[in-house]
């Protein structure tokens, strides 16, 4: 499997894109603003979107994606999410007020988009590729994802605060090569991180102390304006895993 980072910032601005990863050429993990950098041909090849949660920085490009290429495709775009997240998308995004409901366009029997409900712990197989939702602790129903190629694994935590259950599951992934974990705030904003169920460097250190494996660790969802400070604090707080900052355009093969 090949994962390309389309966006990994906690905000927008010049050269900043919010969370989205392209797997091979047909699958998105989240659909933040980074999706907009793909060409029309690349957009049309996307068959699946696996959503971590309903916040706009993770789903904001789905409406534009399906509107742009729906008529160019022979099959609906499949949006994989938990039942709770699907309900939020139905009620608050694809609701005919914010955006048309593309599960009914051009008809309910042949729509441009379909929802596919996922359950944490149950693997979705697409050819030889496995996608398993992992528990996340956020302000809305949320998951992370375990991507399994058959010869190696990558875990994306999604947006999450402290999460003991996640690490119990991750520690059982013997072929884990890459871990992408969020750290949204600097230590001076730890209280905000706790309230919003994100991590700061001191909290990240507490979480990574639960990790028994030794994958490459990459930090995502850094807030603009605090990137250098937060990564400096990450380096001071976490010694063992030597976390590095995720970058747009970065590619992981596993």
Describe this structure in words.
The chain is α/β, with parallel strands linked by helices. It folds into two domains: 1-81 and 83-117, Metallo-beta-lactamase, Chain A (4-Layer Sandwich); 119-247, Metallo-beta-lactamase, Chain A, CATH 3.60.15.10. The protein contains eight helices and 14 strands. Helix 7 (201-208) packs parallel to helix 8. It is globular and about 55 Å long. The mean pLDDT is 98.
Q: How many separate domains make up the residues?
A: 2
The H-level CATH homologous superfamily of the largest domain, spelled out, is Ribonuclease Z/Hydroxyacylglutathione hydrolase-like
Quote the beta fraction.
25-35%
Number of strands: 14
CATH architecture of the largest domain: 4-Layer Sandwich
Helical segment count? 8
Radius of gyration from CA coordinates: 18 Å
**Helix/strand order:** EEEHEHHEHEEEEEHEHHEHEE
Global structural class: alpha/beta
Strand order of the largest sheet: 6-5-4-3-2-1-14
Low-confidence stretches: none
CATH topology of the largest domain: Metallo-beta-lactamase, Chain A
Summarize it.
This protein is of the alpha/beta class. It has helices at 40-44, 56-59, 62-69, 83-92, 164-170, 190-196, 201-208, 227-237; strands spanning 2-7, 20-23, 27-29, 48-50, 77-81, 113-117, 123-126, 129-135, 143-148, 153-156, 176-182, 216-220, 244-245, 251-253. A 7-stranded mixed β-sheet has the order 6-5-4-3-2-1-14. A 7-stranded mixed β-sheet has the order 7-8-9-10-11-12-13, with helices on one face.
Descriptive keywords:
254 residues, 8 helices, seven-stranded mixed beta sheet, Metallo-beta-lactamase, Chain A, 2 domains, 14 strands, alpha/beta
